Amino acid sequence: MSPRETRPGAPVRTAGEVAADAGVLAVLFVLALLGYHSVFGGPWYLVTGLMALILSAGIALAGARWRFGPLLLTLALVIVHFLLGSAFAVPARARWGALPTPASLLDLLRMPVTTWKSALTMSPPIGIGDGVLGVVWLPMLLLVVAGFSVLLRTRHYALAWLFPCGMLACSIVFGTTTATLPLLRGLLFAALSLAWLSWRFESARLRDSRSTIISDTVRPGSWHNPVLRRRVIGGGVILLLSAGLTAAASPTLDPPAGTARFALRDTMTPQFDPRQYVSPLADFRGYIKHRREEKLFTVDGISNGDSVRLATLDDYNLQVYDVAGSSDARSPSGAFLKVAGDVDLSEPSSRAKSATVTVDGYSGVWMPTVGTGTDRVDPKDAASQDAGGSSIGDTLFLNRRSQTLVDSSGLRQGDSYTLRYEPYKAADDEQQHSMRFAGDVAESLPRTEGLDPHLKSQAQEWAEGAPTDYETMQNLLLGIQAEAEYSHGIDDEQASLSGHGQARLLAMLNEPSFDRSEADAAPQGKIGDEEQFAVLTAVMAREIGIPARVVMGFDVDEAEHGTATVTGDDVTAWVEVAFQEPGSSAIHWERFDPAPDKDNNLTQPEKKTTDKPQPQVPQPPPPPAEPPTPPPGAIAEDQPDPPDPDEPASLWVGFTSGIGLLVLLAAATLGVIAGAKTMRRRDRRWRGAPGDRVDGGWRELVDLHLDLGHTPATRATRRETARHIGEALPGEGDGPDGTTREQAAEQVDRLAAGADRATFAPEVPAESDLEAYWAGVMESRRRMTAGLPWHRRLLATASLRSFRAHGREAGQERRGRRAGAARSARAGYGSSSDGPAAIAAVRGAVGRATGAVRSGLDRGAGSLRSRRERRAARCRGGDRG
């Protein structure tokens, strides 16, 4: 449908006006699209959004040109979604980033249900994986098609403006607390919206008013219109002044410093709960006993003396030190938020380094990292892609506060990833004297209830008397390390129980006692390895207000050419304490190693026999803490079996099921439309006065003609419409019932004549006449669809054109009444003398007569007449008789 071939009731606009309207609407959509920048970071969301804008605008233009109904528009959107969505919505799953694959089609099928959760629970920037581009692709497709369809097919331009506002709302809902050019985008959006809406309103008003001060050769919406030109210039000046004042006043209108902008993603519950997994520190002694010489993983790009972090633990429950996680990412414990691979998670500093981790014998959800901050994670596709199409990048979770990285599916042999990290830098002497404990962190860390008071009193005794906070922590370490012995309790080392429950920690505070005459003696005092000493230090520090946490990891003692091989013997644990510089809000976690030197150990003596051993009852050791039962897949032994090589078949099953659901949904929609038409036909045939039932039969033919895609003349009589229907009858020769095309056309003409007689004649049709008339209607309906291909009949059944036609007629009648009232009001406005009043009266009479003639033609063309009008016509016929 060209701009000049609009249907009745739609505004008559030139191609230039249509192009201007479409351009403004497209610019508003692009301004709304830019709100996603803080979420995605990279430019890919712009490619997705712009392609969705172009494709959906093309669908809307085609729909306006060829009069597509809602069903065809929806079908076109579904085709574009599945045909091009792999390239622009899920390129990470597409082959070569463009061609559809079973995995990409399955993601597109699940996208309307899962994409919003993936986008909101992932830490920005969210990249392009896991279908997160769907929050741009789907809203843009739907809103642009709806907005452009309203703009091109109706006169409700203000309603079309609401759809870019909807896209703007989507960018806010899925955005972050950091807005992208908020002042500039807001001013442009508001100014463009006001200017466009004002121009459209004034153009429509001037067109309707037909002002006498404008030449007939000047279109009301043209720039050559002096009235419109003055108002546009004046409005533009006002907009510029308003924009300038807003920009000048923006510093005073900004929220107070420290006030965070609301973001929906901050209210979402993280998808990864570390409490469902066993603390990695519970397996500390297992690395020493069973995997001491086993090659766990290699790290390329690391230096001697660096440490590899495995997990940060800050929640002690009297039995085990565990990894804590909060729903608030700004808490000291942080939150495990899903992150994207191959994107910059933060801006790297000049000191940033890169390291590549390749997994060998290690397994589990906790991923080895390096340094104090991870800026980027790049999974290696060749090693991490499994048979099901998923990779490390699909299941990454990062706690930025604790610098703990997790792969919820579990690392496996062969997995590899590259980290860009910030290396650890210890505080220098000047900083050690000026740093203070971060009090806010100490108050916000998880509290431990039920600790023995002896832990706190002993910590106060050891830490007191220091002039600075750093020396306070050092005094506590000196007290713990005094007379301490290092032992794993294996081989010929001094006996040392594993675990770090409260009973084990209290035993370390007892006086050293050990009977060398007993080989199985249970020693008391400060003896253990990094597991016990790190937990004891952190617990005692927290009891006296020092913000401390435990970190489990591996020490790299030897790195040849930047490559280090990590074994179970390299496992270690240390303590980190939060400090702040005076006047600064930045938190610095300083590392402390509380375990004594490994050379400081005693050897378990051989058992000796004595003639008169001294009676001594050794204290029984406390029972080891029973670790919580891990869920399936939490530890290496419980890891699920690797996926079967034939698992891609399940993707086809899921995709086929989804297609089946779409087919069922389409069939249900078709059934609803067909049922509505059947009910309408039944009401027309059996309800109402006899004349209404005859007129309803004729309307059934006209509606089927419309649903078949034909457009009869808007001012045609029934006989003229019958000729149009006869010319559109399909095929040549005889129909299925033996009638020729000419005979079928004559029957339609007879039905039109019968409808005219029932409408205008004074006689009331008999019931037998009604039955015969409707029999002819049903026969003509069968002849109209005979010979058509099945898809034409299916589209006619699903078409909503006949329903929309009734709505347009009702709206046209209402507008005609309003226009007649407006002309009457203008004809009598401001008349004070007899001459103008007479002229106004004549104009009003002519207008009313013209309206009456048009109304009669409309009724002759098939519009419904009320019972009262037909009754009055029959009465007038009786009087004439």
From TrEMBL:
UniProt superkingdom: Bacteria
Acidic residues: bias regions: 638-647
Basic and acidic residues composition bias: residue spans: 588-611
Record keywords, A-Z: Hydrolase, Membrane, Protease, Transmembrane, Transmembrane helix
Region (Disordered): 371-390, 585-651, 806-836, 855-881
Single GO MF annotation: peptidase activity
Compositional bias of kind Low complexity: 821-836, 855-864
Transmembrane segments: 20-38, 44-64, 71-90, 132-152, 159-177, 651-676
GO biological process: proteolysis
Ranges of residues in domain Transglutaminase-like: 510-594
Compositionally biased region (Basic residues): 865-874
Stored InterPro entries: Bact_TGase-like, Papain-like_cys_pep_sf, Transglutaminase-like
Comp. bias intervals (Pro residues): 615-633
Protein name per its UniProtKB record: Cysteine protease
Source species of the chain: Brachybacterium endophyticum
